Amino acid sequence: MMKELFEFLFSMMIFPGFLFLVALGMLFHWIDRKLIARFEGRIGPPWYQPLADTIKLFAKEDILPIGTNEAFALLLPLTSFATVLTAGFYIFSAFITSNTSFEGDFIMIVFLLSLPSLLFFLGGWTTSGIYSILGGHRSLLKYFSYEVLFLVTLSGASIASGSWSLAGIRSVQENGSPFVLSQMVGFMLAMAGLIGKLKRSPYDIPKAKSEMIVGPLTEYSGKKLAMWNLTDYVQTVAGIALLVQCYFSGLWITYSPVGIFTSILLMLGLQVSLAIISTIFTRLRIDQLIDLNWKIFIPLSLLQNILIIIL
Amino acid sequence: MSRLTIPIGPQHPLLKEPLSFNITLEGENVIDSVLRLGYVHRGIEKLAESRSYIQNITLFERVCGICSHIHTTTYCQAVEGLLGLEVPRRGVYIRMLLCELERIHSHLLWLGVLAKNIGLNTVFMYAWRDREIVLDLMEEISGGRVSHAINTIGGVRKDLSQEQIQKLNNGLTDLFDRVKDLLRIVENDRSFKARTRGIGFLSEEEVQRFCVVGPVARASGGRVDLRKDTPYAHYDELSFNVVTMNEGDVWARAMVRIHETSEAIRLCEQMVEKLPSGEIAATMKRKVPAGEFISRSEAPRGEVIYFVKSDGSQSPARVKVRTPTLTALITLPKQLRGLQMADVSAVVAGVDLCIACADR
Amino acid sequence: MKKILNKIHSFFPLLPNIFSAFFSKPETENYPFEKTHIPERYRGRVSIREENCVGCSLCVLDCPASALEIEKESKTQYRLLHYRDRCTYCGQCEQSCRFDAIYMDNDYIKPADNKQDFFAVLVDRKGS
């Protein structure tokens, strides 16, 4: 009884629960910032920067404009943080063992990972500043387009494996070949969808400093802003890990220690490519974003899925 | 769709200096905008009437930070015209050298600001890294990175030594390659062109109707360059091209400015080669006779006009300054009509505003 | 082949630049922890060669910020004061002096926390 309680607490709080996800998220965020700085010819922050930022934010005053619903303004960042933590828990424990994976958890993970975008927009709506409303407006349009892309491309992986669970997707690849080889186009479109979900350049219109200050989160400060930032960090790691599991399982990713090592390397590789893509493109305008999505990306991914079904 | 009014107010991350715009949006399109100036008005023209001619040189240097040298050059030219003083050739060449170096500095700064507003942080960092070379060169010659204080009535204060000429040559060669690289990026990058082409359009007859000067006019096809039209300060002895483009949008302005930067580097190299020997300044009589003089020059943003009127006393009776940013500001509401909200930042950055110049 | 390379190049013209910037030293000067280069002509502190000064007060007349003041009792007894917090470091005093007395050093003026540090007596020839 005590042993089970201890194991439960350990997995919830330490690994792969709260502490592990937050620490990994901060590490990947630091790698991203350092890489982008070096690409631009700057030095970049030291390794403890994300941790120091979070601690500083917890110590700041937390004020909101008159007329905002205080309870809602606290509930939204808390909920989005909770959803990504839950999704991250299932994704990372699927790296170690297949026991925690159940039939249908894949869809649940993708759904949980898409909630923060909706809550981001609602967060802007509640604080009702002029910059937040306009920023939120655009975020909703974007949320709609890129979440759809992410779901459609990832469901290619699950269609090809014939199961709705992460363990099932992995085992089909382990017996056959990794999906990245047979669904290269799908993989690249899933990366594009991930960039859109994470609100990174070139899709970072809601956060565009030069136009809308910080977008929907303009009025947040203190603990709430810290939670929005932490959501961002954990969402990045969870998204990257999900992509690695869905596309690269089998040949290089197994349940053994060597497999875990290669999976970490692959995650780092994906983070490096995300940083490179952020530095070489300008921020696209909202209508260019949406055009690109609905005219090129989604038709290609639907075509990919049809080919999978036929072959 | 309801109409929304957004203040791009006096403080905004998009602007370098305070300027107030109220943009009326319908959905995502801009319908109208209202401009307000005057946030940085310091009364410089009135201050000039209570200071002596020599003290005014330092005063006029502080009209603008980026084009400080050209303001003092034009003012000194006006007072030298009143006095009937002729500046020795070496002094004029050193003045022109610093003018062109300042033009390079201003255009590189502007390219960085445009790239940052569009979202391409990398080009911002690269352009400002290359700008450091120019700033170091100017600091070697004059003692200050942005405020040079090298002009005096009658010539310049400091001479160029052999060591500095060597550093100049090395720096200019390095800079030419870097500017060529930046040109390759701006010309070819698809996402850059997607954000800057086709917006902020000004046609050639609109340019003439609004009396626009500078690179904004040259990007719409007008060949307005004071260094060729009415050469001041020995520009007729040097050879260079006036760059014009016909498209008239923000991308054309970027191309014009980058080509102008390479032309300016070539001009600097010619000046260093042809530097005449001799004195650098003529002695100035302290008493300025009564009269009026108008002097004009080509600043990085266009044509600067100084009108100095003297009545024989210690201080000028009236100094009137016309700066080029005002002409470009007047066309902004017309350029912004019909654009989307995300294009506002690109257009406002593309016009290269210097509100401190416009307000004085 | 060249056409394909050109097409890729037009999509990603920044790629070679970011890789070369990654593998070279960053351009940032780590200023407080590294010394930076100050050129010879840098306009720093206003100093004086006392033996050359004759008290003609041309520098006082020409200073645009009224940072120099002279207290004159007679032709050979005077005090020249310099207010560093009014000074704009423009170098006009150095230019106006015909006796090569006042000049600008290239010492960097550090910030201070009391007003006395910003006031200097350059020449003191007042009688007792």
Which architecture of chain B per CATH?
Answer: Orthogonal Bundle
Following the backbone from N to C, one meets helices and strands of chain B in this order, namely EEEHHHHHEEHHHHHHEEEHHHH
Largest sheet of chain B, in brief, is:
3 strands, antiparallel
Q: How large is the share of residues in beta strands of chain C?
A: 15-25%
Question: Quick one: CATH superfamily of chain B?
Answer: Cytochrome-c3 Hydrogenase, chain B
Oligomer: heterotrimer
Overall body shape of chain B: globular
Sheet with most strands: strand arrangement of chain C: 2-3-5
What is the helix/strand order of chain C? HHEHEEHEE
Q: What structural class results from the helix and strand content of chain C?
A: alpha+beta
The overall number of domains of chain B is 1
Radius of gyration of chain C: 26 Å
Mean pLDDT of chain B: 87
- Biggest beta-sheet profile of chain C: 3 strands, antiparallel
Distance between the termini of chain C: 91 Å
Number of strands of chain B: 8
Report the top-level CATH class of chain B. Answer: Mainly Alpha
Strand line-up across the major sheet of chain B: 1-2-3
In total, the number of strands of chain C is: 5
Mean residue pLDDT of chain C? 82
Percentage of residues in helical conformation of chain C: 10-25%
Task: Describe, in plain words, how this protein is organized in 3D.
The complex is a heterotrimer of chains A (311), B (360) and C (128). Chain A is globular. Chain A has one domain (66-310). With 311 residues, chain A is mainly alpha-helical. Chain A is built from 13 helices and no strands. Helices cover 76% and strands 0% of the residues of chain A. Chain B is α+β, with helices and mostly antiparallel strands and 360 residues long. Chain B has a single domain, classed as Orthogonal Bundle (Cytochrome-c3 Hydrogenase, chain B), CATH 1.10.645.10. Helix content of chain B is 50%, strand content 13%. In chain B, β7 and β8 (318-322) form a beta hairpin. In chain B, α6 packs antiparallel against α11. The longest helix of chain B is centred in the N-terminal third of the chain and has 30 residues, at 89-118. With 128 residues, chain C is an alpha+beta fold. Chain C contains 4 helices and 5 strands. The chains are: A mainly alpha (311), B alpha+beta (360), C alpha+beta (128). At the B-C interface, α2, α5 and α6 of B face α1, α2 and α4 of C.
